[in-house]
Recover the amino acids of this structure.
């Protein structure tokens, strides 16, 4: 994973969650570059800007001001420039119907933010490892949700 | 004198001769007249014969007509009798109709009375209907509010709670050497409390979702559901060295995802409340029964029911708690002894009620518990 620096984009309006994410990346000692945006409009402006290089992965919160994660995901999947970008949904709540909808809309993975920080780290590590394999085809529905349990197996 | 006499005689002869001639003439005239009369008579005779022949024919005709008239008369007598009979019948019928008419008039009156009553009843129903529509509209609003609350609790309440937990775990992980033992202990208690609150929110959400989700009934083999739950609880089953017997379960008319939750809650309860030194043994049975044999007032005697029994050899409970255990937040043990929020069995009961069924629990302390579920087969 050290061979190539991963460009990570995080879209989350919650300051605390952004702090957790940064601490986790720092502690994991991964060669990554993190960009953070705090609402959906900022996110789409950044992604659509021709001069910017597309990130390797987007961690997308669902509940954001101005434009929510659902809308952003749809726009990304409709855009020729962005539809190959792996989008990992990063959400507090877990509702089966919502998860099904996100899978149908083309999200790469779904993560329910764990409350235990060590688990938080493990899940981020695991998901970045999956992205680093550069396999951007959508996984099967059973493998769509990344949990602490399946993070431990790999 | 002779001469004169002769003369006289001659004269007399002439006169006689003249008489004779005259007589002859007269006779001839007479004869001619007679011939004419005779001819006339012959003609008349002929005519009379013709007439007689005609009369014979006419007579025959009359005889025939007479006969026909007699026949007709006979027929008319019969027809008359028939008409007389019919007339009598009609009079009878008329009498009956008068009675029937009176009856109809009475019925009509009754119907008018009934119609008037129905109009009143109808107005009353229309009013009640209106009231029900108002209530339904209110319920829709209340339901929307409940859904909004569900969403708030599922997302907004969980978020700050999760962050408290994350911050605590960062402190415990990264500041471990800077903390005193009391400090560490207090943070651990804080973590437990937050974890418990998270469990409460999750369980409350599960409880409220039982109300809000669409109810889709389908015929399903209960053994499939039990197998799914066994897979889900595999780790706990191993840990408790538990055996679950569930042979020959029947099919039931159920809301699949709710029934899976019901089985999950009951089996995980049985595993949780097992005796510390005895491996958990859970027996699940099912059969189709008629209520006439069940004698339960809450069940309809005509219907048949799917009767499911879940029996364990766990710690059980005192018989007087058999109703209370199904109430929300009711627990029989401190949370340090047996973790839980006291919602699991309330969810079970609600699911059974969604299936128009009943659930009972029987137990004695330390003698295991049996849960009996009855749900209609259709």
């Amino acid at each position: 994973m050290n061979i190539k620096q991963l460009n990570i984009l995080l879209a989350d309006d919650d300051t605390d969650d952004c702090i957790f994410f940064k601490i986790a990346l720092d502690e994991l000692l991964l060669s990554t570059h993190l960009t953070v945006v705090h609402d959906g409009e900022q996110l789409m402006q950044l992604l659509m800007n021709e001069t910017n290089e597309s990130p390797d992965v987007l961690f997308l919160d669902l509940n954001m001001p101005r434009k929510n994660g659902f809308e952003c995901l749809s726009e990304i999947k409709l855009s020729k420039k962005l539809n190959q970008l792996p989008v990992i949904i990063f959400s507090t709540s877990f509702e089966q119907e919502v998860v099904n909808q996100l899978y149908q809309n083309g999200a790469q993975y779904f993560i329910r933010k764990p409350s235990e920080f060590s688990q938080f780290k493990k899940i981020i590590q695991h998901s970045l490892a999956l992205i680093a394999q550069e396999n951007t085809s959508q996984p099967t529905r059973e493998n769509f949700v990344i949990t602490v349990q399946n993070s431990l197996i790999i | 004198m002779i001469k004169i006499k002769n003369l006289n005689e001659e004269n007399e002869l002439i006169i006689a001769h003249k008489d004779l001639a005259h007589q002859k003439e007269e006779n001839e005239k007479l004869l001619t007249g007679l011939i004419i009369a005779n001819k006339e008579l012959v003609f008349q005779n002929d005519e009379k014969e013709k007439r007689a022949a005609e009369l014979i024919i006419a007579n025959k005709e009359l005889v025939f007509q007479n006969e026909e008239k007699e026949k007709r008369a006979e027929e008319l007598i019969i027809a008359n009798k028939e008409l007389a009979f019919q007339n009598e019948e009609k009079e009878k019928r008329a009498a009956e109709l008068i009675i029937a008419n009176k009856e109809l008039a009475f019925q009509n009156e009754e119907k008018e009375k009934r119609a008037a009553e129905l109009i009143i009843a109808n107005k009353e129903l229309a009013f009640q209907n209106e009231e029900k529509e108002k209530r339904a509209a209110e319920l829709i609003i209340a339901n929307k509010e409940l859904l909004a609350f569900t969403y708030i609790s599922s997302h907004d309440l969980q978020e700050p709670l999760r962050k408290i937990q994350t911050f605590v775990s960062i402190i415990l992980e990264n500041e471990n050497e800077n903390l005193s033992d009391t400090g560490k202990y207090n943070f651990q208690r804080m973590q437990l409390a937050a974890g418990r609150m998270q469990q409460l929110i999750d369980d409350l959400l599960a409880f409220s979702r039982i109300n809000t989700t669409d109810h889709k009934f389908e015929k399903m083999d209960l053994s499939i559901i039990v197998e799914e739950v066994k897979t889900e609880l595999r780790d706990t089953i191993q840990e408790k060295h538990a055996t679950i017997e569930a042979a020959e379960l029947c099919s039931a008319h159920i809301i699949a995802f709710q029934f899976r939750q019901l089985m999950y809650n009951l089996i995980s309860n049985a595993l949780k409340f097992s005796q510390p030194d005895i491996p958990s043994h859970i027996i699940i049975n099912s059969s189709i029964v008629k209520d006439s044999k069940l004698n339960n007032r809450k069940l309809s005697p005509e219907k048949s029911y799917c009767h499911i029994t879940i029996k364990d050899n766990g710690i059980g409970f005192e018989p007087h708690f058999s109703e209370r255990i199904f109430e929300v937040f009711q627990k029989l043990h401190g949370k340090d002894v047996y973790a839980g929020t006291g919602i699991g069995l309330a969810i079970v009961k609600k699911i059974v009620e969604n299936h128009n069924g009943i659930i009972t629990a029987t137990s004695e302390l330390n003698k295991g518990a049996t849960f009996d579920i009855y749900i209609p087969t259709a």
Remarks:
- The two ends of chain A are 15 Å apart (CA to CA).
- The first strand of chain A starts at residue 6 and ends at 11.
